[in-house]
Amino acid sequence: MRRLRGGAVAAVVLVFAVAGCKAETKTGAGGPTQTGGGGAALSAAESLTVKGRAPKTGYARDRFGAAWADTDTNSCDTRDDILKRDLRDVKFTGGTCKVSYGVLESDPYSGQKVTYKRGRSLVDIDHMVALSDAWQTGAKYWDARKRIALANDPLNLLAVDASTNRSKGDGDTATWVPPNKAYRCTYVAAQVAVKKKYGLWVTAAEKAAMEKVLGTCPGQKLPSGGNPTEAPARFHAD
C-alpha cells in the first residue's frame, strides 16, 4: 500500500485494505486514520434500504454544483486534492495545488501503472457512487448543499485509469465492478459506506450484488470519514 500524499484533504479517507481484508493505518493530513471504524462492510450492506430506482428525469451534473468545488476551504479544488492524495511523484504548477504530473503506481480499477499529465490526462477522478445513480436513489429529493457535499466528498472519490472508468458509466454494483478482482471488495465497501453515510437506497439487484462481492471477504471493513454531508452555505446548485 502506498503512502497518502499531500495535506489538502481534510479527514483523509479511502485507506483501504486490498489483500486479506485487513484494516491498515496510514498517515494523512489529519494524522493516522484507522479504517473500519464503521463496522463490517457486509453488515452495512445488509442494512441498506431497498427501493426501486427513481426516474432520472431532472438529472444534470450541475444539480450537484460546480465541478470540483472547494468545499473544504483549503484553496485547492477537489480534483487536485484527490490527485495529490492518490498519485505518487506529484509535481505542481504555480504553487502546491495545481497538479501537473503524477503516477498511479497501480491503478485500482485496472491494476496497471498509469501516468497523469495535466491537459492530456489518462487519469479520471471517479465518483464511486455515480452522481446519476445517487440522483435515482434519493439525491433528487435533497437540498442542493447535500448534493454538493456528495459530489466533493473524498469518501466517494478515487483517482483511476480513465479508459477503465469510462466503461462504468453510471453503473451500480449490479452492472459494473472493477476488472481488477483484487480491488472489488474495497470498491464495493466504499460504495456501501457512501450510501450509508448519505442515506441513499439501493435496488434489490444492487444489494444482492454487493452482498455477493462482500461475501467473498466477510472481514472487509467499512471505510469512514470524509467531509460533512452539507456543503458550506456559500455554495449553490441549480
Structure description:
Residues 1-23 form the signal peptide. Pfam families: GmrSD_C. One of its GO terms (molecular function) is endonuclease activity. This protein is an alpha+beta fold and 238 residues long. The chain has one domain (25-214). Helices cover 26% and strands 14% of the residues. It is built from seven helices and seven strands; from the N terminus they run ββααββββααβααα. The protein has helices at residues 41-47, 78-86, 131-136, 144-151, 162-166, 184-198, 204-214; strands spanning 25-28, 31-34, 88-92, 99-104, 114-117, 123-127, 157-161. Strands 3-4-5 form a three-stranded antiparallel beta sheet, with helices on one face. A two-stranded antiparallel sheet has the order 1-2. Strands 6-7 form a two-stranded antiparallel ribbon. It starts with 24 loop residues before the first strand and ends in a 24-residue tail after the last helix. Mean pLDDT is 87; it is low at 1-38.
Topology of helices and strands:
Layout: E1 25-28, E2 31-34, H1 41-47, H2 78-86, E3 88-92, E4 99-104, E5 114-117, E6 123-127, H3 131-136, H4 144-151, E7 157-161, H5 162-166, H6 184-198, H7 204-214
Antiparallel strand pairs: 1-2, 3-4, 4-5, 6-7
Helix pairs in contact: 1-6, 1-7
List its salient traits:
238 residues, alpha+beta, three-stranded antiparallel sheet, two-stranded antiparallel sheet, 7 helices, 7 strands, disordered N terminus
Q: Domains counted in the coordinates: how many? A: 1
Secondary structural class: alpha+beta
Number of strands: 7
From N to C, what is the helix and strand string? EEHHEEEEHHEHHH
Task: Describe the sheet with the most strands.
Answer: 3 strands, antiparallel
How many DSSP H or I helices? 7
Specify Rg, calculated over alpha carbons. Answer: 17 Å
Helix content: 25-40%
Strand order of the largest sheet: 3-4-5
Shape: globular
